[in-house]
Amino acid sequence: MKVLIIGLGSIAKKHIASLQKIEGIFEIYALRSSRTSKPYDGVTDLFDIDEVMAMSFDFAIISNPTAEHKSALELVADMNIPLFIEKPLYHTLDIKDIVEKIVRKGTLTYIACNLRFLPCIQFIKQYLSDNHIRVNEVNSYCGSYLPTWRPEQDYRKVYSSIPELGGGVHIDLIHEIDYLYWLFDKPKTVNKVFSHKSSLKIDAVDYANYCLEYDTFNVSLVLNYFRKDSKRSLEIVAEEGTFNVDLLTDSVTKGGELIFQSEERIIDTYPKQMAYFVSCMKGEKKSLNTIQEAYRVLLICL
Asked: May I ask the CATH architecture of the domain 119-263?
């Protein structure tokens, strides 16, 4: 299979590593923004859009900076090939037209929200469904320390810190909104508070607090860039007890008793989601997170 990658940064390299774990031969080409870009082993560089358009590809991976997703999608929309799109879909809602065009064309799309492949999230989704759990309250939290994300770079100069490039904790950590949407569907109303008051002193949103209202319960979601002791958790207060999902240890407790534990970690979800996408291309499975769904999640986020 011939694969076109638009945006060869750190996340793209994770996707390349995932492809290399799948049985089969993948010829990987990357559209580079500069001829001085450092080569990457196993990837053929392309620098000219006309050269890209003259070639035939089996699918494309969109993994350039968030603020450039729209232009990338406009480039590949008429290539009529499956699209693997790194989250988030975009940093504003000004992408509806290209989303509708891709949907009309019937293009296979998958937006890479890999927490849907984390075993503890899959477990709690199945458990809630199988046991008809009556939910009363949900609390989701993700806090980590932005300066340690890319220690080799000045955190104030990376896209996460720059709103114009698609930065902001609400966009960066849209994973949480995505899995809440996957677990509980679309909320009736969304209230939110965004701020950047912390000691990080960046222009992008570094704290986001959402209240999502459903018919019979509410969801509280807090995201931040400034917590040094990382925490990523989901608490479900139900009629039959409280469930605590720890995404960092991939475990679930109920009333303090361990009911699920996996040795997998978030890094292990990348190969799983890529294998899933390839299965979708082969017609073996149906995409569980299309561009249409991702736009609905973006609406909740923004």
From this structure: 2-Layer Sandwich (3.30)
Tell me which amino acid residue 87 is: K
Separation between Cα atoms, residue 206 and residue 202, nearest integer Å: 8
- Phi, psi dihedral angles at 8 (to 5 degrees): -105, 60
CA distances to 34, 84, 108, 185 from 214, rounded to whole Å, are: 47, 31, 30, 9
Whether 254 and 242 have beta carbons less than 8 Å apart is answered as yes
209, β-bridge pairs: 193, 222
The pLDDT value recorded for residue 110 is 98
Give the integer Cα–Cα distance in Å for 160 and 28: 27
Domain ranges of the chain: 2-112, 119-263
Residues in the chain: 302
User: Mean pLDDT score of the chain, rounded to an integer?
Assistant: 97
Check: CB of residue 91 under 8 Å from CB of residue 43: no
**Residues 59-117 pLDDT 10s:** 999 999 999 999 999 999 999 999 999 999 999 999 999 999 999 999 999 999 999 99
Q: Is the pLDDT of residue 33 over 90?
A: no
pLDDT higher than threshold 90 for residue 34: no
Instruction: Given CATH 3.40.50.880, say whether it is the number of domain 2-112.
Output: no
CA distance 143 to 146: 9
**What sign does the CA torsion over 279, 282, 284, 290 have?**
positive
> Per-residue pLDDT tens for 184-211?
999 999 999 999 999 999 999 999 999 9
Task: Count Cβ atoms below 10 Å from residue 231 Cβ, excluding itself.
Answer: 14
Q: Which two tokens stand for residue 253?
A: 């407790």
